[in-house]
Amino acid sequence: MTEKERMLTSKLYIAKDKELGKEHLRAIKLLHTFNNSLNIKKRNKIMYKLFNAVGNNCYIEPPLRLDYGIHTNIGDNFYANFGLIILDVCNVVIGDNVFIGPQVSIFCAAHPITKEERNKQLEYGKPITIGSDVWIGGNTVICPGVKIGDNVVIGAGSVVVKDIPSGVVAVGNPCRVLRQINENDKKYWASKALEYEEDK
């Protein structure tokens, strides 16, 4: 089994590997161009090269940081503010209509608790899934192996260490469900949207 195969199947692996090094260098080169270009069309073309899959109507504010990019799948209508970091040593799947605040970190990568194994440069990862219609507040950290459901709001500054079910507001360190998103929320925000339309 290659180091890459071990990495993608959540087994211990060593990142100092020729194949992984080549793929990481490819990402670094594309990211350098992406992060230093003022041309949005050029950045969008690079985005489609960086990731395994990208849906329609997606936009990412630079700077962006990735380990590989090719292990990340992004749905339609994706927006990420400044400073998104994705350590995609395992698969990252992001649904449709996901909004990500500034300085959000998505970390598949992890290291052994014991110093002996860490000092051998062994590491591992766990895949991350983010559902559709999710808003992730700024400075949030999503930890290895987490699954976030659909229609979720993650409050700013959260550290998400466990799965978050669909249809909730969750916040904190560690991130926990604060409450369900309910009919009162829908009525309130629908009235605000209507007010906006009437003011135009």
Features:
28% helix; 200 residues; globular; 5 helices; 20 strands; alpha/beta; 28% strand; UDP N-Acetylglucosamine Acyltransferase, domain 1; five-stranded parallel beta sheet
Number of strands: 20
Going by helix content, strand content and strand pairing, the class is alpha/beta
The coarse overall form would be globular
- Gyration radius from CA atoms, angstroms: 18 Å
CATH fold label: UDP N-Acetylglucosamine Acyltransferase, domain 1
Report what the structure shows.
- The protein is globular, with a radius of gyration of 18 Å.
- The protein has five helices and 20 strands.
- α2 runs antiparallel to α3.
- With 200 residues, the protein is α/β, with parallel strands linked by helices.
- Strands 3-6-9-14-17-19-20 form a seven-stranded mixed β-sheet, with no helix packed on it. Strands 2-5-8-13-16 form a five-stranded parallel β-sheet, with no helix packed on it. A five-stranded parallel β-sheet has the order 4-7-10-15-18.
- It has one domain (3-199): UDP N-Acetylglucosamine Acyltransferase, domain 1 (3 Solenoid).
